[in-house]
Amino acid sequence: MSAQKTTWQDWVAVTALGVGSFTIVTTELAPIGLLSNIGSSLGTSTSQTGLIVTLYAWIAVAAALFSAVVLSRMPRRPLLVCLMLILALSSGVAAMAETFPALMGARVIGALAHGAFWAMIGTIGAQIVPPHRVGLATSIIFGGVSAASVLGVPLANLLGSLNGWRAAFTAVAVLSFGVAVVCFATLPKLPGNEGFGAAAMGRVLSNQRFMCIFAATALVVTSHFMAFTYIEPYLVRQSEITPSVIAYLLLAFGGAGLAANVVTASLIDRWLKSVLMVALCLASAALWLLSMLSDVMGLWGTVLMLIIWGGGIGAVLVGFQTWILKEAGDDALPASAIYVAIFNAAIGLGAMLGAIVLSTSGLNEIYLFAAVATALGTATIALMSGPTVATSQAE
């Protein structure tokens, strides 16, 4: 049950979890812009090196579901601290890897901890803060996810381009260790949840409202990473954009996502569906315009579309998770675990579909398909009534 009063230490813990979510998603996605450097260093092709992203995402899917069932009864503080230390060790070993199998092995260990950490933090905010502050806490915790999706990747890539790909992994290892220390010092003693099995999973999967949210999540996250994975080659192709400004464009994209998190944090508890609808419409429109007007948009038009897209997706990623928690009640852990599994599966699927579309059509078509998929996600949410308070929270 959520605490009715919170202290500054509780909010520091919530913030640390937000930094932790930033760290784990940055760990997952950072290699996207470093594949060529890693491949040339370890003597592997770019396509083979890409397995360290794709395989990581799919292993995290299994880890999220497995941990939610097997680890659910464990007290949260020691569990989360241990998982962050494993992530730190994984990134540290990856930074020192001299062969591709060694790098892959380090990534596999990290993916296991990644899935478990993400599945657990989905319900932590509701355990620390009172019900009317769950949206704000979730915005902070999962704001790290959207920040990493749009900001952590270009920062890691910039660091890697300046000091080598190993420096990026080393930085993530240090950050993971720091999160572990802060969580150990500030997280309150939170008990685990009762374990659940097939019956709990069945309840969630048979709930039509959950299935609509899961479907919208799959569509939107797949489309986002279909487009975002290829944002750099898309920008390189623009005649008015030089390679030296691409990093700044990506930072503007990420900054818009962070700003959206700040703005929506104060709105999402009262107007969750409205926030989601506006954000989804903006993201879909921006993707469509990037597809249709890429040759005539120019530098500032592209910047504007990146800001709209980044802000929209930043609000959406927090909104979906908040909606799940508001609906779930006693089934928060299995619902969150399924959401995390779908999210990570969609990352891998989006990158794969983007590669297929690129090889058969082109970059513009990637953004067109992404816009259509996002619009379908918007339609799915539009057909639903607003979030309802779960029975267990209302009692």
From TrEMBL:
Pfam family, one: MFS_1
Subcellular location: Cell membrane
Superkingdom in the source lineage: Bacteria
Domain Major facilitator superfamily (MFS) profile: start-end pairs: 13-389
Topology class, membrane: Multi-pass membrane protein
Keyword set, alphabetical order: Cell membrane, Membrane, Transmembrane, Transmembrane helix
Any coiled-coil regions, as ranges: none
SUPFAM superfamilies noted in UniProt: MFS general substrate transporter (SSF103473)
Transmembrane segments: 12-35, 55-72, 79-97, 109-129, 136-156, 168-190, 210-231, 246-268, 275-293, 299-325, 337-360, 366-384
PANTHER family, per the entry: CHLORAMPHENICOL EFFLUX PUMP RV0191, PURINE EFFLUX PUMP PBUE
Record's protein name: MFS transporter
